[in-house]
Amino acid sequence: MKHSGILIICTHFGRGAAYRRLSYFIKYFKIKKLRIYCAGFLEISGQGLIKPSRECYEIPFIFSTSTSNYVINFLLYPILSLVITLVILILRPKIVIVSIPDFLPVLASYLSCFITRSKLIIDVRDPQEEILVYTYRKGLSGLIARFCRRVNYSIYRRTHTVVAVTSRLVTMLVNELRRPVHLVPNGADLSIFKPIDKKVARFKLGLSQDSFVIGYIGYLSSRGYYNILPILLVIRRIRRELGVNIKLIVAGPMHDASVKRIVKYFKEEFAYMGVLDTKDIIALLSACDVGLIPRIKDPIYDYAIPAKFYEYVAMALPLIVLANNESELAKTVKENKLGFVCNPDDQVCLEDTIVRLATNRHLLNEIKRNVLTFRKYVDRSIGAERLFKLVTKLLPADQA
């Protein structure tokens, strides 16, 4: 059978940071003269039906990313398995890369690759199985979560290659799987994520030139993870007690009605820009003085570094981070002096950090110089080149 290239399968190919990462890999592989395809799913989310990007095959299967529907998705698994199997049987790729491996596509891809003798790469961005087990601990959902973790890890031990995006995630997977795991770091496309003139960006967005602007890109939730309510309360207190003109500007999907009520309540402290494309995200971040990464204290998330970290650094933004001190994110920020880290529950630290950055231009510029020095290390081409080398090793010598 003639070599028919590389297939990337991902359940998040129609939106956000996951799409930007994988679309970069596709572009990079094409430049390297590899034939590459991608396949994504129809997805129901809080924003309605999300389709895969136009460059991908659209797998005609609808699933929900709502955590409450994992049981329903699991019960529909046989249908999804059949669809994935048909895609792989038709394309017959030499290599299949399953990226951000939710439990949905892993088993079907593994069995299909066994039939077609395709080689399988698992690309882990978050400890998805651990998060699933951590989230669902009781009842039928807990049983399914533990079953999915067991099945996925069993498959990971049998695949040709497993890659992960952070050093700590690599270590965790090595200890769990007892096999080599390769570091393929995340990053940002430095040719795209570069700041434009701040005054121009603020004028475009209708922001005051005199405000101290904190930027946040990502989804909005009132249930802990990426919860911006504590930040807004601190900003309101600073504005009222110290008279400092501070504003939080946000772009991203809203995941529940409570966030919509928060938006209305904090009109003076908060500007919501909706869901933006990459060009408008760059304008938004260019208008900011610092970038915000709110986290939660659950240690299960300490293995990961969110994509917004890389994009903030690419945009030369000092960072305000809410994270556990032992997390990979906190250590990276502290070791490279890229900003300030506060424990997620430490409102005093957060308030002190915002006041210091908003009132001390010299400190802000000093941190910005550190960020600019570190910027070259978040180049997405670093990870793309590592993945390319792993892929070419798996291709036949006359096709690599």
Structure description:
With 400 residues, this protein is of the alpha/beta class. It has two domains: 198 residues, 3-Layer(aba) Sandwich (Rossmann fold), CATH 3.40.50; 181 residues, 3-Layer(aba) Sandwich (Rossmann fold), CATH 3.40.50.2000. The chain contains 16 helices and 14 strands. Strands 1, 2, 3, 4, 5, 6, 7 and 8 form an eight-stranded mixed β-sheet that branches. A six-stranded parallel β-sheet has the order 11-10-9-12-13-14, sandwiched between helices. Helix 1 packs across helix 16 and helix 5 packs antiparallel against helix 6. The chain is globular. The chain starts with 5 loop residues before the first strand and ends in a 6-residue tail after the last helix. The relative contact order is 0.11.
What keywords describe this structure?
400 residues, alpha/beta, Rossmann fold, 2 domains, eight-stranded mixed beta sheet, six-stranded parallel beta sheet, 16 helices, 14 strands
Give a short overview.
This protein is α/β, with parallel strands linked by helices.
Topology:
Blueprint: E1 6-10, H1 16-31, E2 36-45, E3 48-50, E4 57-64, H2 70-75, H3 77-91, E5 95-99, H4 103-116, E6 119-124, H5 128-135, H6 139-156, E7 161-164, H7 167-177, E8 182-183, H8 198-205, E9 212-217, H9 229-242, E10 246-251, H10 257-265, E11 270-272, H11 278-286, E12 290-293, H12 307-314, E13 319-322, H13 328-335, E14 339-342, H14 347-359, H15 361-374, H16 380-394
Parallel strand pairs: 1-2, 1-5, 2-4, 5-6, 6-7, 7-8, 9-10, 9-12, 10-11, 12-13, 13-14
Antiparallel strand pairs: 2-3
